[in-house]
Amino acid sequence: MSSTMGLILFICLSFSMLPGVQGLVEVIAAVGVGAAAVVAAPAVLAGAGFTSAGVAAGSVAAMIQTPATAAGSWFALSQSAGVLGMAATTKAAVGAVAGGITYVASLFV
């Protein structure tokens, strides 16, 4: 087992022992989904048409782009991530949100 995998397992086990936290399986699922979301985000952006060369012609992004797209809008931020890649803070936010949603959903299953 790599040291990274060992550290992730240790973190999952530690979180699962906190009061109010459901169980190890739910925590591992949440961490796994969060990590998968971070890995998949660039592919999802490219698939939607936010490429390193700009908005791809005929893509979903091209269909929703308007001449009045405001700076700082979700469209502008997605385009920036497609061209420059996602910042570490953005990756952390994507992973945390996806993992959090997964964990909360697991409480109702």
UniProtKB/TrEMBL annotation:
Check the record and name the Gene3D superfamilies matching this protein.
Answer: 6.10.110.10
Question: Is-annotated flag, keyword Membrane?
Answer: yes
Q: Where are the transmembrane segments?
A: 33-57
In what way does this protein cross or attach to the membrane? Multi-pass membrane protein
- Xref: InterPro entries: IFI6/IFI27-like, IFI6/IFI27-like_sf
Which GO cellular component terms, listed alphabetically, does the Swiss-Prot or TrEMBL entry include?
Answer: membrane
Localization per Swiss-Prot or TrEMBL: Membrane
Q: Please state the span of the N-terminal signal peptide per the UniProt entry.
A: 1-23
Question: Where is it predominantly found?
Answer: membrane
Which domain of life does this protein belong to? Eukaryota
Any Pfam family from its record, for instance, is Ifi-6-16
Iron found in the keyword field: no
Kindly state which keywords UniProt assigns to this record, in alphabetical order: Membrane, Signal, Transmembrane, Transmembrane helix
Q: Which family does it belong to?
A: Belongs to the IFI6/IFI27 family.
| Name of the protein this chain belongs to | Interferon alpha-inducible protein 27-like protein 2B isoform X3
State the gene name recorded for this protein.
LOC111112744
